[in-house]
Specification:
10 strands; D-Maltodextrin-Binding Protein, domain 2; alpha/beta; 43% helix
Length: 329
C-alpha cells in the first residue's frame, strides 16, 4: 500500500469517525478547536482563553485556543470555513473579521452570511482619545478645531488598519461633521497609543481598556467621549457620550465579540455550543476577568437571539459602507 493511499485512507477514516460520532449523538469531540484570529498575548487571545476554560466544563471536553493571525483576521475565518461544519472548530470574531473585511476588501472571498452566530459574549466601548496637548477639551471644541485646521493641516488619526471598525467609525464621524481628517493605519493598538502619547498623531477612536483611563489621569492623553449611549464601564461612568453632541446624535458603536460556526452546522451542535457559552457568561470568574479590563459580559441569549443580533449588525454596517463608499483591493 502506497504512503499516499495510506494517508488518504487515514483521512477518510477520521472523517467517517467524526460523522459517526455526530450521527450517534457523541458530540462534542475531544478536543474542540476555538480559532482566535490574532496572535497569542493580545486582548482577543485573553478573551478566548477565558471562555475556552469556562465552556469546556459544561461541554465536558477540552476547548483548545488556536491562534491563526494574519490578513486582519481573514486567515482565521477562512480556516473555519474550509473545515467541515461538524462543530469540531468554531470562530471567535468581531465586526472587523466577520462583517467589514468581506464587505470592504474585494480580495476576501467569504461573506458574513457564511457564518452562523452562536452567542455574542462581550462588548467593548469605543472612545475618542486625543494627544494630551491637543487644544480641545470636549467634542464640540474638537470639531471646531478640525474645521479651523482645514484640509492642508487636517487632524491625523490612527487605527488598527484600513477597513477596520475604527476606520469606518472615524470616516463616518468626519462625514457627519464635514471635517477633513487624515488616516494613519497601524498594525496594532499598542503603537497607536505610543504615537498618541508622543504627539505623532492627533487622535484615535479605539476599543477602551482601563489602562487608557490611567494614562488620562496621568495627563498623558485625553479621553473626550465614549461612543456608547448606555453601556459605559464603571471607570467611565461620568464620561459624555459622543451622541450628546447634536451632529453625532445617532452615533452608538461598540466592539462586539462572539462565537460563530460555519453555516450548515447541525442545529443540535449549535445549541450545545450556545448552552455552554450561556453558562460561561454566568460564571462569576469570567465576569470578573472580562470587566477588569473595561469590557462587559453580555447576558446569555438563545441561538435565535444571536442570529437576530448578527443580522442587525450586518445590515447596520452594510448601510454605512455603502454611504461612505469605502472599498479597497
Amino acid at each position: 500500500m502506497s504512503k499516499t493511499f495510506r494517508t488518504l485512507a487515514a483521512g477518510a477514516a477520521v472523517a467517517l469517525a467524526s460523522f459517526a460520532a455526530v450521527a450517534a449523538g457523541k458530540y462534542p469531540f475531544d478536543p474542540v478547536s476555538m480559532v482566535v484570529p490574532y496572535p497569542a498575548g493580545g486582548v482577543g487571545d485573553t478573551t478566548g482563553r477565558i471562555f475556552s476554560d469556562a465552556m469546556g466544563k459544561p461541554l465536558d471536553t477540552h476547548v483548545v485556543v488556536e491562534n491563526v493571525g494574519g490578513a486582519a483576521g481573514a486567515i482565521g475565518a477562512a480556516k473555519v470555513l474550509n473545515a467541515q461544519p461538524d462543530g469540531s472548530i468554531f470562530f471567535q470574531g468581531s465586526q472587523n473579521e466577520l462583517i467589514l473585511a468581506p464587505m470592504i476588501n474585494h480580495a476576501i472571498r467569504y461573506k458574513a452570511t457564511d457564518f452562523q452566530a452562536v452567542q455574542p459574549v462581550t462588548v467593548t466601548p469605543l472612545v475618542l482619545m486625543t494627544r494630551a496637548d491637543l487644544p480641545a477639551s470636549n467634542v464640540a471644541e474638537f470639531v471646531e478645531l478640525a474645521r479651523k485646521r482645514g484640509e492642508k493641516q487636517s487632524l491625523t488619526y490612527g487605527t488598527t488598519g484600513v477597513g477596520s471598525l475604527y476606520h469606518l467609525v472615524t470616516a463616518r464621524l468626519g462625514k457627519a461633521a464635514d471635517i477633513p481628517l487624515t488616516h494613519v493605519p497601524y498594525k496594532g493598538g499598542a503603537p497607536i497609543i505610543q504615537d498618541l502619547i508622543g504627539g505623532q498623531i492627533d487622535f484615535t477612536i479605539i476599543a477602551y481598556q482601563t489602562s487608557m483611563k490611567d494614562l488620562a489621569d496621568q495627563g498623558r492623553v485625553k479621553i473626550l467621549a465614549i461612543f456608547s449611549k448606555d453601556n459605559k464601564p464603571r471607570s467611565l461612568a461620568d464620561m459624555p457620550s459622543i451622541s450628546d453632541t447634536p451632529v453625532f446624535h445617532d452615533f452608538d458603536y461598540a466592539s462586539y465579540v462572539g462565537y460563530y460556526v460555519k453555516k450548515g452546522t447541525s442545529p443540535g451542535i449549535v445549541q450545545q455550543l450556545n448552552t455552554a457559552l450561556g453558562k460561561a457568561l454566568q460564571d462569576p470568574g469570567v465576569i470578573r476577568k472580562i470587566e477588569a479590563d473595561g469590557r462587559s459580559v453580555l447576558k446569555p441569549g438563545s441561538v435565535a437571539d444571536a442570529e437576530a443580533f448578527y443580522d442587525g449588525e450586518i445590515r447596520k454596517y452594510d448601510e454605512i459602507v455603502k454611504t461612505l463608499n469605502l472599498t479597497f483591493e
